[in-house]
Amino acid sequence: MTRRLDLAALADVPDSMRPRVDPRELSVGIVHLGIGAFHRAHQAVFTEDAMVASGERAWGVCGVSQRSRRVVDQLAPQDDLYAVLERSAGATAARVVGTVREVLCGCDDVDPVLERIAAPSTRVVSLTVTEKGYRLRPATGHLDMADAEVTADLAGRPPRTVVGQLVRGLERRRRADAGPITVLCCDNLPANGVVVARLVSDFCDRMPDSVGLGAWIAQAVRFPCTMVDRIVPATVAGDRAEAARLLGLRDEGTVVTEPFSQWVIEDDFAAARPGWERAGATLTDDVAPYETMKLRLLNGSHSTLAYLGALAGCEFMADAVRTADLGPLVEGLMAEVRPTLAVPDGFDVAAYSSTLLERFANPALRHRTIQVAMDGSQKLPQRLLHGASELLASGVAPRLTAFAIAGWMRYVTAGVSETGSALPVDDPLSPRLAAATAGAGSAAAICDALLGVTEIFGAQLAADATFRGLVLDGLDRLTRTGVAAAVRATLAG
Ligand code: CS2
Q1: pTM of this prediction exceeds 0.85
Q2: Which helix (H) or strand (E) covers residue 33, if one does?
Q3: 7-284: CATH, from 3.30.70.1670, 3.40.50.720, 3.40.50.150, 3.40.50.2300
Q4: N or C: which end of the chain has fewer CB within 10 A?
């Protein structure tokens, strides 16, 4: 069997694929909650490149896996090294990344995680825990106090929720007098830093023993907003086999991604940070225009392609964008939502949108439609609904956005695609969605039942007659005529 990647084996890795800093020289300066594929393909790479540019060696990452030991088992035996495969139509480039220097499992034993957050050498706690990982109520943006895990963390057990771990870590840091720190949210939520600051404050307010903690956090902790962008499909066995071929070593931690990568960060740090701008990140006073643009253009189109593509029987996003006029549909969707966007100075939205279509069509990525379709209840508001509400408020009918919502409604109720493949509803609200639509026989009944899920739609949009009419039209067409005909009719107006 092929030898496994680790520090000693690096000597056998071709020069061009070795970490760009010597992992042995790094010390931990960042704790990252949620060390999934995205962090490894995005922030960890920026951080390594920033260290190359600055010569600093104090920004190694301690990655925390929130839900299972899987990442620990993948990375620990190989000294936390892994390969990033960057794939485009014609080529794959591989590089081993050495930034991650430790991986902890928050679910096994949280104490070392809290210790790391409290260590004076830690200056940044970053997060990628997905939308649902925050346990917030999408309609209010506040912590979901009805969530049993949140309640249990508040009662004082070793914390298992992300917000609980963050707050208990900050509490320990305050006690240790370890100094200011920055919490850097890198999830696809609007005003993500503001959201996390609010959740932390909600948790502190309810903690029986939090005397003075809220005030310390207000003074010593910053929560900058960020926009992150890189498409990172879940790794499959074939990807690990390709990494083994390229490296000549077995790598259980491989991640796959596209050549494109972007990071926009609000320049509001409580303490030192890596020079990420030297690795191509944009540091700015105001992330909001970038964030809204990315969520509505990229992620809004992504969700649309995922639901309609999966319904049409496409396994991969690159197939979806070439199927049944879905490419022109998302192009139209981007044009529809464009008036709601405050475009950053000097930014070419038309070029950005056409680059998106090329990125979606990257045939080498093999990004599954059902991966993007996951957790729709947590994604629809910021990706599609906020734009729809703003268009309606300015008197414009959000025709294509409403059709995309109809696509989601059809997806969560159809069970199987037009080619007979299963359409799993992998969503924290799936029991609620199933209960709401049980017994709903017609498109109108399904549409009304789902619009009534206020956690997703809120009260105002659900009650908007224009919106309901458009969504129902789309759902009715999708149900009666299938995806291709419904898309054609919708595009024909
Ligand atoms: C995708 C995103 O899975 C999803 O919901 O839309 O993960 C998307 O690939 C990234 O946001 C791209 O930056």
Answers
A1: yes
A2: strand 28-33
A3: 3.40.50.720
A4: N
